[in-house]
Amino acid sequence: MLRIEGLTVGTDSADLVLDVDLELAPGETLCLVGESGCGKSQTCLAAMGLTAHPVKRKSGAVRFFDTELTALGEHEFSDIRGRDLAMIFQDASAALNPVKRVGDQVAEVLCVHRGLSRREAMARAVELFEMVGIPQPPRRVRAYPHELSGGMCQRVMIAMALACRPRLIIADEATTALDVTTQAQILRLLKSLQAETGAAMLFVTHDLGVVAEIADRVAVMYSGRIVELADADALFTAPQHPYTQGLLACRLHVSSTAPARLDAIEGTVPTPASRPQGCAFRMRCLRASETCHRLPALAPMGTGQLVACHFPGGAA
Amino acid sequence: MSGGELVLTDIVRLYGGGWFGRHAPVRAVDGVSLRLEPGKTLGIVGESGSGKSTLGRIAAGIEVPTSGRVLLNGKPYAPMGSAAWRRERASIQVIWQDPSRALDPRMPIGGQIEEAMAAHRMLDRAGRLARVGELLELVGLGGLGHRYVHQLSGGQQQRAVIARALSLAPQIVVCDEAVSALDVSVQAQIINLLNDLKARFAISYLFISHDLGVVRHISDSVAVMREGRIVETGDAQAVFSAPRHPYTKALLAAVPAATPAERRAREALSRMETA
Amino acid sequence: MRASFLLSKVLRGLVTLLLAVTFAFLVLRVSGDPVTLMLPDDTPPDIIERYREIYGLDRTLPEQYLRYVGGLLNGDFGYSFRDGRPALDVVLERVPQTLVLGTAGFLITSLVGIGAGIVAALKRGTPVDLAAMGFAVFGHSMPNFFFGIVMILLFAMTWRVLPSSGTGSFAHLIMPAVTLGIGGAGSIARFTRSSMLEVLHQPFMRTARAKGLKPARRVILHAVPNAAIPVITVLGLRLGGIVAGAVVVETVFAWPGVGQLLVTAVAQRDLAVVQTIVLLVALTMVLVNFLVDVVYGWLDPRMARAGKETA
Predict the structure, then answer these.
(1) CATH number of the domain where residue A36 is located
(2) Residue A49 φ/ψ region, left for φ over 0, alpha for ψ in the -120 to 50 degree band, beta for the rest
(3) What is the model's pLDDT at position B275?
(4) Is A89's CB within 8 Å of C203's CB?
(5) What is the band of B175 on the pLDDT scale with cuts at 50, 70, 90?
(6) Which residue in A44, A101, C205, C299 has its CB near the most CB atoms, within 10 A?
């Protein structure tokens, strides 16, 4: 129900997202994984039409059910945003209006999209607060963002996003700023709400643990492009792209003992302006050769995965 | 040269308290005793509000506890701000979470490392410059001494901070979320670097983090903090594989699974337990 | 906590008042002899001495000061040299006119200034923005008396659409109010613009857009309330500029308010009147500052509360 094709986003001087293709079915959770600067956030912003000057969508199509989002004017798009498509941002305390009560901010979505009166909307907001696990909803609804902890603010954001029961939820690093226990609660909450409403979720994160917890499918991004696209299980058990393999190898998970010397990927992510020709990862890849000067296309492997590499597979 | 030894005894740190004790003060650290052994890494884990950062600052001598004692190699810190205290700073360095704020944006990083040494009157100018070159090589920034902060990536910035800390030949380095703001692949590089340096220069680390995986990997022993108190300590591997305190268990249970398979196994287990 | 906060504010206000009056007191007496100014040039010295005695000007400075302050506390503000009436009456009868002019000028400063600032911020970088900021610089740097005189030349003399001076109708108010308000409007516009720009880039504005709110709603209900907070404080401070400006504007347009009175009273060394006006102005400023603090605390919920509830 969401199809992104050939999305390219960037500024006049550099491209941040290059030729990204993604698909999402109803009820499915797709995790967009990558490190800082890979373009995962910009992809989501572009899909929702929220890119801010100087960044703009340069080409590509974003199809949401039967509507071509890129063809919509700002006015028509506003009707869809918040109602059928919702986004949850990373730093919830900063993403909420500091001078308005949180209940009002949630109720606003209902007033604008569902035409509810203020009283009806506030009543519904109290219900939503209860649903997302905020204690004492009638009281908390009157609080201001600075009076709530990070975890609470994130729950408010979720309530706000889910108010109109959207078909698609885009979460951009929604749990990154939270404690591990709060993160666990929020992830569980999102999954249960998703199961209840049948919404699809596009979850952006750099944390492979989060991916393991919630993803059905995973797309790995590096320097603006998708380098691997696979089912969650397949990605963890048999990663194909050298970058994915590197990421999994250098993970430090509390439940396992990693080797004393970590298998770090040498080098750093190139800046958009200094992105190398061909495969962007070749400067850091142990398998790189002359062939890698030619950009590898995202091609299917036998296992059902899509990989953009000339030398995929091999031992992790 | 062996690393420094740090002993904290009954550290309490209170904040606030209103007028005439109208409001109860915030007990950021509420009776903590720890020992950092020479040449070892002691990890401190906790969630936000656990007081671990405050404890780190007290351990490093840059914050004075309300009560309790800190002994560096058997001696207490000099009064804060005094000349003796400033000289002591060379023995115990701190690395913070955000390297871009720990470095001066208007000076090349080589210059900043040299400045640190000059402040402690180490070597002469020629000697310092040579040492700067050595240190940069050591941390993987060889030849980049002329660069400014904004010309370096996050990982490179943190390396520069480490080089500067190293230049003073510290015995103890306190790392307060030192790798938390870095990408996973860069984290691995920096952790490798820290371990290499520890082996080479016999530095003791006090590693504070909320990331259990990182702490498990880098620490010899670990202390779990909650609301200003230590709830469990012990050998890192032992604590994480067989936690005793309910809070530690809860923390570990909350960590996201490593793979989907592990997640399903957990879910199955909890279904069985509740059934 | 609240009570002590208020108390300290009140104390500070009182100290400010005392300092202001003391300053006026000293300057007036040190800078010239009121009696000789008041009486004809050829008055014999002993008559001058007698007048001095009557007005208490033959006493030492500290003694005069104490008598004055003592008088104040009893509600005695002294008497005007010019017509012998109580200074307080003389001043108070002029207050309504200045109030009208000041309010009109302040309204212009705030409405024009804030409006221009918001528009400039929304249309940043476009000709509209440049025009608005150009106007702001103009208003800010143009001396108000010059502007007033030019306005009189144009509107009263050349085009004859507005009366050149005096009071009586709404038309009389237009030019003085605009002259008074234009300077402040310029700086308020610049300040509002930068405050708006800062707010527009905040994360919560992106959330508002993501919620599907239309641009107008976003600006009016989300951006402006946040941007207004620092602007309100600056507006309050601007009131000092209104007061200072009123003195000049009233003189240029012969507007019979307190400002005009002040100018003549200073020239004539009408001590009691000047001191009373200074006291009045200082009191106004103290009250306004206090009001600004209260409004700020009310507008920004972060100021009112102290603690944070935890998850």
Answers:
(1) 3.40.50.300
(2) left
(3) 65
(4) yes
(5) very high
(6) A44
* B41, β-bridge pairs: B205
Q: Which domain holds residue A9?
A: 2-90+166-307
From A79, A99, A109, residue closest to C225, measured CB to CB: A99
Residue A264 lies inside a defined structural domain of this protein: yes
Of A180, A206, A210, the CB nearest to B210: A180
d(CA A137, CA A126): 5
Listed residue (A258, A262, A290) closest to A277, CA to CA: A290
Is the pLDDT higher at B157 or at A270?
A: B157
| Higher-scoring residue by pLDDT: C73, B19 | C73
Mean pLDDT score, B9-17 = 85
- Can you name the residues that pair with B93 across neighbouring β-strands? B173
> Which residue of B183, B213, B261 is in closest CB contact with A253?
B213
How does residue C297 score in pLDDT terms, banded at 50, 70 and 90? Answer: confident
Residue A48 within any structural domain of the chain? yes
Instruction: Map out the domains of chain C as residue ranges.
Output: 1-94+269-305, 96-256
Closest residue in A to C305 (Cα) is: A147
The CATH class that applies to domain C96-256 reads mainly alpha
> Structure tokens of B101?
């704020």
Q: Kindly report the CA angle at A68 between A63 and A74, in degrees rounded to 5?
A: 125
Q: Assess whether pLDDT exceeds 80 at residue B94.
A: yes
Q: What is the mean pLDDT of chain A?
A: 86
Q: Say if the Cβ atoms of A98 and C214 lie within 8 Å.
A: no
Chain A nearest-CA residue for B262: A212
pLDDT above 90: residue C266? no
